[in-house]
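Quick one:
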Amino acid sequence: MIIEEEISKIVFEAALKVHKVLGPGLLESAYEECLYYELKKSNLKIEKQKALPLIYEEVKMDVGYRIDILIEDKFIVEIKSVEALNDVHLAQLLTYLKLANCKLGLLVNFNVKLLKNGVRRVINGSL
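Output:
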């Protein structure tokens, strides 16, 4: 069974490859498609635009949340193409991690010169 840390490395390497080929400045959807394509080569279970229901008082509500990429049902990749990551982006991923009961995720902003400056690891501390 693959652990989250190994998935994190696989995602970072795939994102690095996509960023190297495409560079910054495109729409999130372009990066998502290319990253999904790269990750599918890893033989891991990869899902994109996975619906994420909200459970409120035992009631499952479909409020339109979607995980950009979910890997092995336990690792979330949230893709951005913005001028700078901010607290709202981090809060969004943290909320997705909690709702999906996942421990770790990566927030990846492709709109940067060096990809390493656009990647944030987010840990769900409530698990």
